[in-house]
Description:
Elements: H1 10-31, H2 39-63, H3 69-93, H4 96-104, H5 119-137, H6 149-163, E1 168-169, H7 171-175, H8 181-184, E2 186-187, E3 200-203, E4 206-208, E5 215-218, H9 223-263, H10 265-277, H11 279-285, H12 291-310, H13 316-329, H14 341-353, H15 361-381, H16 383-399, H17 402-419, H18 431-456, E6 461-464, E7 471-474, H19 480-488, H20 490-505, H21 512-527, H22 546-562, H23 567-587, H24 600-609, E8 616-619, H25 627-637, E9 642-645, H26 654-666, E10 671-674, H27 678-682, E11 685-687, E12 691-700, E13 711-726
Amino acid sequence: MPALEAPVPEAAVTVLLVGVALVPGWLLLARLGRRPGDPVALVFASLALGLMLIGWLALALAEIGRFSLATLSGLWLALVLALGLVAWRRQGRATEGRWERARQGDDPPSPHHPLTPSPPLQYAFLIVWLVAAGWLFFRPHEFIIGAADAGVYVNLAATISETGGILIDDPVLAELDPTFYPALLRPLPPGDFTNGIAPYYLFPGFYVTGSPAGRITPQFYHLHPVWQALAYSLGGVRAALWITGLWALLGSLAIYLVVRDIAGWPAAALALAGLALTALQVWFARYPTTETLTQFLLWTGLWSLMRWLRDAEPQPLWGLMAGLALGQVFLTRIDSYFLLAIPGLLWLGLRWSGQWRPAHWWFFLPLALLTTHSLGHALWQSKPYFYSIFGYGLWLLQQNLVLPAAALVGGGALLVLGRYRGHLSRLAGYRRPALLASVPLVLLLAAYGWFIRPHVGEPVFTFQDWYSGGQLPWGLDRENLLRLGWYLSPLGVALATAGSCLLVWRVNRHTVAILTTGLMFALLYLWRIQASPHHIYAARRYVPAVMPFAIVATAALLGWLLAQPRARFVAAGGVLAVAWLGWLGWSARGFVSQVDYQGLIGQVEALNRQLEPEAVLIFNDQSAVTLGDFIGTPLQFLHGHHVYSLRDPAALDPVVFRQAVAGWQQAGRPIYWVGEPEPLAGWGLTADKSWTVTLSSQYLEGAYDHRPSALLRAEWSLTITPITGINGP
Length: 729
């Protein structure tokens, strides 16, 4: 469905989405038994539940090609009426005494802390934070150009809104003679892991499978662009860009609730302030990729899982929330399946210990359903991408045999434990020695990553990048922890390490999932960032878990110091807290003030007004990443044109080209040549007068060996020539 004729302002779209999600979430939460005992947790849980239900419905509609505001609104209304009817009938049967007992059964508030202020002070702090975070997070980069993941998401969102589906059937591409493909489409390189499913790209991120003719399969998993499509349908491209800021806001609140439950309110307040000052959180709140949505879902799931494990009799609310949130992580990112190790071990532990209850299905069933959905989605809606990423993953395992070896050892250990699970209780006696060994291990790994690995790690060399056509350095993974320190500060890395040791030492059944998740992500992405270290963009892999876990660990450590009875510990905690927040803010300088590609949306819209509707544009550009990739992507997906790049002139048959031009003209499609017009006469084509359009903006540099700081100028000059006819057969 196209965007509304009169788009709603982006701020109003965000408020509307929050309000619409709160209603079914609130009703469902009331139906599931005990409610959170404090207003912040109550509102957040209601909002999270509603958002997850709406997002899942919207994704399912897009998968079957039925996404639209009208359909989604009808389903939302039916859901609200059904939940409202259940709540009304339940209320009608309840007596005042039963309501009183229900209120007494609410969850207790967050754990008491000696420095916890009165509720009004907490609410005042949250209001101040919301104002500051709103200013920081809702200043999105105007990233609509193609040839990069961020632009792929935004342009795909517009297409989902316009067509109602994820898979794209392009009628002009379907009519294109297949002999044109080598000239106008980009072949995937030899050895690509798509296994021949998609031999070509139309643009980077948009696979052409060739069957059926005209079918374009966008890469990635698609929960995030579906949400962007919903915002786009209401408020256009600017509203779609704002949605990332909403996820950053909610992800920060989820982390706040996690820290509040494990370390008290002062630590949670420090965590929230630290997140608002961290360059990575601010930058990727503005950058339209999946990182902040993943962060919101992951930490909402971990918070809910922690509360679910807290009660002797697991509550359906927390089990359902944890299962939905962690399950939707697998509909958002393809690189998160290793997280299944945590619920897998939890399942075994509950079974082996005899603590299994039917109520545990509230967590495991939605998690299993969403995991299955994600795999089905991959094979149905994103098959080339799925094969490419998993093929690359299998290749990595072959190159690093230590990983499958560790998996085999772990599996063997589980088999042994299962065989002798009756003796598991004896292992509790070894808890203290195990923790005494684990704490030094964390310290040694951090010291190795900071002091030793940068100097003795793998050698740095350059390689030819197929995507950009340039030389890129490889081997800089050895400096990953130092590079994380660009954004967290050296003090932040030190405090995060010490805080991780504290969390390891004090680990319990409530915090073990948080600790395991944080350490697993840190070990993976500080070992291999899985991308060329082109900062700040490569650092987005730290945003869902690594950076937040560092903030959580630091806040827990500072909260522990502030809670000590001795004044010198409190003083040390206060000094460290001020120094940490100050250094985070100093490390974020430049990132807070910069908005990439500012003004580009308006410039592309002005360019579109100079073109006739539904035109065919051919960019004469043989660069590795062409002008057609950058500017043609938004012209096609945001503005409805049909764009190709002449990637290989030698493969272009002039006779077939003239026939294609004649067919487009007969169909009433205007045709534009973008580039120097000299070749047109040689191909027997007549043209009108050319004109030139220049688009320009600023963006932050992508650096390999230093903290990004310089602002670069992007400028694209387009010489546009209308093709008016043909000479010859």
